[in-house]
Every structure is written in structure tokens, then in C-alpha cells.
């Protein structure tokens, strides 16, 4: 597959500029009047800043869910039926506890997966949504696409903490000796990760590539 | 290679049509238009602007993908019923398969969380394998695809980020360290099934070329394209001016 021959020297001809619409699922190109791709059945969405509303909505939902995820305990540990004490650990508390045990490597994994990555993701998606469609040089566009690809790739890995809680609470049901129960923060954290993933998925990478004004047809 | 294509374009009437989009491919990442052409196995087509891989056909990829999907299904079904981890301390033991876990939580308030976790680590991977098999088995046998094959494949691709078996394995490793001070833990067969699954998924991802599968679905006769692919070239329709080139 190669560039359109008459357009090799000029800036890249996009489907949008040619008055067409490209399917973001399978790549087929259709006239703008079509609403669904006839090959894969996906909805055809023009690369338009209006699509960013969904990005912002999911992102804000993810940020809201992230607050209780840090305030409430991730899990409750009960040892000797509560005689040796119950302990509740939040995300930060769990990391400090791991460092206290000396397992710094695991503490770093949890720290990165449940603090650095989610917060970095919020900032990165918000930045992308702000600059998307604004005029950019080719280098800037490449940087933005790289950031987007990193966010898209790394988003799922925040689920590690949820899985840890799920495994621990399933595994450590030793009756009298010890038991672990998931706390409300586990649900909030899972929701926050899911919302941020949806936010990243609703971001249209094609917006990065053009300083697309709101009324693009007027150009 | 691009020059060869260009010359070919000169010899034959254009096979693309800027009015209907026939014979064109738009990069899903950056919308750059490309001419559609068949690649031979082993070649890779990248977007000229953003470098996104547009097509990467491989010889025998369908058969490999079918084998890998089937493997992953077997591993996942095994992973449900075999014990995952075994923990014991002070004579209290607890061997749990994922099926036991689901049962243990079937009445709790956290049932939605457990169902979501099980869906992400077991349900969606099995569903994806099934959808891939549904799409690919007829194509590999060169028969017409089943009904809704396009929808099935589109869903399989959409669900890809939500199937998290490999993340679950890392989560297990973290959980093992946390529980190591409290009790002794033995890894069960289901854990190793999940580890194997990571490699199966990596291989499946390497062999997967969405474009080839879409083309195969199309060529195998699913009524997806009402523009006849072998019809007369649309040279009668004048191509519109491609807009400002600022």
C-alpha cells in the first residue's frame, strides 16, 4: 500500500480532506454519507472534536472513582478471628506495609501500577484531549501519538491491584487463623481503571494528525 | 517498491475512486489515504505518515490462529476447574480453583466485582477465542464465512483490551509475596495454564493481521461490499480536488 501518486510531494491526503470517511475499525473508505462500514459493520465516525466529549466524560468519571479508591481500604485482614487484630489497608498503606516487610520490588510494582500509572494516565488523556485537533507540527503529532499509544497500552495494567485483592481474599479464607476480605476501594479502583480505559478508547487518534477546526468543511 | 506501484498505476487505469472510496484504505490511526493492493506473505505495509502497521499477511496465519485460539480455549477451561493456588498454615488448608472462588462469593455484596474479575480473566478470553474460531475456521477451509462473521471478528478485536489473563498472572505473583509471610503457598496447574496462556496470546498477536482477515471475509463472499470489486474502473467519475495543501 502506498501513498496516492499525485500526492507524494504534498502533505498527506487524508480521507477527511478528500471528502471521504475512513472506518476506524477496518480501514475501508466510504463516502461521508454512509453511517456504517459495509465491510465490518462498525459505525463510521468523522474525526471531529465533538467526539472528545465522551473522552472527557469517561475521564472525569474515572477521576471521581479514583478518590474513594484511595480513601477507603482495599482489603480487611482478620487474624485469629479478630483477637490478633484486624487491619485495614488502603492503597498507600499497602505499599508502606510491603516496604516494611522489605519486599521493595513488589512495593515498586504496586506503587507504579496503582499510583503512578493512573495519575499519569489522567494527566496524559487530559493533555491529549486539550491539544487534539489544534495545529501541530509533524514532530508534535508523532509525540502525541506516542503518548496515546503508551496510555492505551498501559491502561489495563492498573488492574493488577484489583486482581491481587481478589486472589488474596479468595485464597486466605483460613477460618479462625486468618481471613482477608475485599474493601470498598477495590470496587472503586476497578471502576476507575475501567472508566479511564473507556476514556482512552473513545479518543480518536486521527484528531492528533490535523489541526482540525470545529467547522472542518469550511476550509 | 512504491515506484513499482506508481508505474503500474500508469499502465493500467486507476483502480481507485476518490468519489466512493473504492480501492482506498485509510489508516485508522491518522486517516492518511493509501491505495489498496494485495501484499505477498511476509511483506508489511506501514502507514506513510504515522507508521502504523496497515497489513502484515503471513503464510498459513489462519491455521496458526485457529490452533492458538483452540489452545487458549483448552487452557482456560482447564484453568477454571483445576486448583489455582493452595495455601496452608497451622494445619488449615485451602485449595481453590477459580470455580470455587466464584461459588464462595456467590452471595456476597462484592459479587459484581468477582463477576467482573472472572469475566476479564476467563469469560472474555474464551469468548474471544470462540469468536476467532467462528470467523476463521470457514475461511481457512476456503468456504463462505458463517453469518455475522464480520460482526464476530469486530467484537473479538473490540474485546481484546478487556481480556486480562496476563495481568492476572502478575497480580498472582504480587499476591504470593504478600501471603508468603502468613502461610505457605503451592502453585496449582491452573496457575501454569495461565502462564502458558501469556505465550499463546503473544503468538496469536504476532500472527494476527486484521486487514488480511477482513479481506478474506470480503473475498469469501460475505455480502459486505455493494461496490463490485471487479467492476469497471471508475475513471468516468472525476476525482475531486483534494482540498487545501497547506
Automatic annotation (TrEMBL), chain A:
Primary location recorded for the protein, binned into one broad class: membrane
Localization in the cell: Cell inner membrane
Transmembrane segments: 55-73, 80-100, 106-132, 153-178, 184-209
Organism: Paracoccus tibetensis
GO terms for cellular component: plasma membrane
Keyword Cell membrane: yes
Signal peptide: none
Name of the protein in its database record: Paraquat-inducible protein A
PANTHER family in UniProt: INTERMEMBRANE TRANSPORT PROTEIN PQIA (PTHR30462:SF3), INTERMEMBRANE TRANSPORT PROTEIN PQIB-RELATED (PTHR30462)
InterPro entries: PqiA-like (IPR007498), PqiA-PqiB_transport (IPR051800)
From TrEMBL, chain B:
Key words of the record: Membrane, Transmembrane, Transmembrane helix
Disordered: annotated segments: 225-246
Keyword Transmembrane: yes
Pfam families: PqiA
Organism superkingdom: Bacteria
Ranges annotated as spanning the membrane: 65-85, 105-127, 164-184, 190-208
Protein name, as recorded: Paraquat-inducible protein A
Amino acid at each position: 500500500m502506498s501513498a496516492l501518486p499525485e500526492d507524494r510531494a504534498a502533505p498527506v491526503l487524508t480521507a477527511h480532506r478528500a471528502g471521504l470517511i475512513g472506518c476506524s475499525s477496518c480501514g475501508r473508505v466510504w463516502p461521508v454519507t454512509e453511517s456504517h462500514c459495509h465491510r465490518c459493520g462498525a459505525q463510521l465516525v468523522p474525526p471531529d472534536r465533538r467526539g472528545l466529549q465522551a473522552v472527557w466524560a469517561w475521564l472525569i468519571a474515572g477521576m471521581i472513582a479514583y478518590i474513594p479508591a484511595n480513601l477507603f481500604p482495599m482489603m480487611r485482614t482478620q487474624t485469629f478471628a479478630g483477637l490478633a487484630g484486624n487491619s485495614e489497608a488502603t492503597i498507600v498503606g499497602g505499599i508502606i506495609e510491603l516496604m516494611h516487610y522489605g519486599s521493595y520490588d513488589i512495593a515498586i510494582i504496586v506503587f507504579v501500577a496503582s499510583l503512578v500509572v493512573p495519575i499519569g494516565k489522567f494527566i496524559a488523556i487530559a493533555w491529549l484531549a486539550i491539544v487534539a485537533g489544534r495545529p501541530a507540527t509533524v514532530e508534535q503529532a508523532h509525540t502525541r501519538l506516542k503518548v496515546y499509544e503508551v496510555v492505551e497500552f498501559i491502561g489495563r495494567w492498573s488492574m493488577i491491584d484489583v486482581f491481587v485483592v481478589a486472589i488474596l481474599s479468595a485464597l486466605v479464607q483460613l477460618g479462625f487463623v486468618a481471613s482477608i476480605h475485599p474493601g470498598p476501594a477495590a470496587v472503586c479502583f476497578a471502576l476507575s481503571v475501567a472508566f479511564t480505559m473507556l476514556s482512552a478508547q473513545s479518543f480518536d487518534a486521527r484528531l492528533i494528525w490535523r489541526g482540525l477546526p470545529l467547522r472542518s468543511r469550511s476550509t | 517498491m512504491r515506484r513499482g506501484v506508481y508505474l503500474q498505476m500508469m499502465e493500467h487505469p486507476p483502480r481507485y475512486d476518490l468519489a466512493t472510496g473504492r480501492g482506498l484504505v485509510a489508516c485508522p490511526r491518522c486517516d492518511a489515504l493509501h491505495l489498496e493492493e494485495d501484499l505477498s506473505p511476509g511483506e508489511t505495509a506501514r502507514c506513510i505518515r504515522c507508521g502504523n502497521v496497515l497489513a502484515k499477511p503471513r503464510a498459513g496465519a489462519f491455521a496458526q490462529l485457529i490452533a492458538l485460539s483452540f489452545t487458549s480455549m483448552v487452557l482456560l477451561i482447564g484453568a477454571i476447574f483445576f486448583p489455582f493456588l493452595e495455601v496452608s498454615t497451622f494445619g488449615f488448608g485451602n485449595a481453590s480453583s477459580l470455580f470455587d472462588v466464584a461459588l464462595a462469593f456467590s452471595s456476597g455484596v462484592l459479587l459484581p466485582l468477582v463477576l467482573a474479575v472472572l469475566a476479564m480473566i476467563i469469560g472474555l478470553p474464551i469468548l474471544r477465542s470462540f469468536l476467532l474460531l467462528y470467523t476463521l475456521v470457514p475461511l481457512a477451509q476456503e468456504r463462505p464465512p458463517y453469518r455475522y462473521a464480520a460482526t464476530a471478528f469486530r467484537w473479538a478485536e473490540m474485546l481484546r483490551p478487556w481480556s486480562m489473563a496476563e495481568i492476572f498472572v502478575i497480580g498472582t505473583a504480587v499476591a504470593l509475596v504478600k501471603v508468603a509471610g502468613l502461610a505457605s503457598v503451592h502453585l496449582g496447574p491452573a496457575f501454569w495454564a495461565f502462564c502458558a496462556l501469556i505465550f499463546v496470546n503473544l503468538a496469536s498477536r504476532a500472527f494476527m493481521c486484521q486487514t488480511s482477515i477482513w479481506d478474506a471475509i470480503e473475498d469469501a463472499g460475505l455480502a459486505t461490499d455493494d461496490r463490485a470489486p471487479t467492476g469497471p474502473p471508475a475513471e468516468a467519475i472525476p476525482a475531486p480536488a483534494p482540498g487545501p495543501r497547506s
